[in-house]
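User: hey, got a sec? need Phytocyanin domain-containing protein folded
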Amino acid sequence: MGSGGAWLLASSAALLVIASCALTASAAKYTVGDTSGWTTGTDYTTWASDKKLKVGDSLVFTYAGGAHTVAEVSAADYASCSSSNTLSSDASGATTVALKTAGKHYFICGVAGHCSNGMKLAVDVAAAAAAAPAPKASPTPDTTPDTTPTTPSSSGGVTPKTPATVLAPPTAKQSASGTTGLRATALAGLGVAGLVAAVQLGLF
Ligand SMILES: [Cu+2]
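Assistant: Yep! Here you go:
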């Protein structure tokens, strides 16, 4: 299992490299099978093993037109070499597949016997670099609306018609001590904040 661990480490390192390079890397085109192209007798598992594909890249399948097909299939159909339910298929001889989504993509040749003889390709596509998240707009009201009535602490004996009075302490205690006054101011502030919220909710 030592080699498996090393593989995992190598894969993790590769992912880090991809993540750090994705910001500047441009879309790449990969010729499947390199000089062998898309044909029987080529090990595409080995070919794909060191490819660092990402969204935006393209796979280019080159083959004699009509001699093979390039069919994108599901994982299950890849495993069973079934081309009866292809996601896309082409037999032009020069098939370019743009990799538009991250994750696994599976391709097989639909000609009888070719897939089961190894003409199948599975690739793992990494997500393109995510754009930096835009800063969230702050919903906090920084300014007091013009319609805000005077605070209860400064309204003297006049009883405000606002919810702020609910939280305001009795006016007699406001002059009792500095601490009580501070508390009253804080409570009044809470009341005003509630009123502002109520105004913004359209209750007034
Ligand atoms: Cu084929």
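Quick note: Helices lie at 2-21, 44-49, 75-80, 164-167, 178-200. Let me know if you need anything else on Phytocyanin domain-containing protein.
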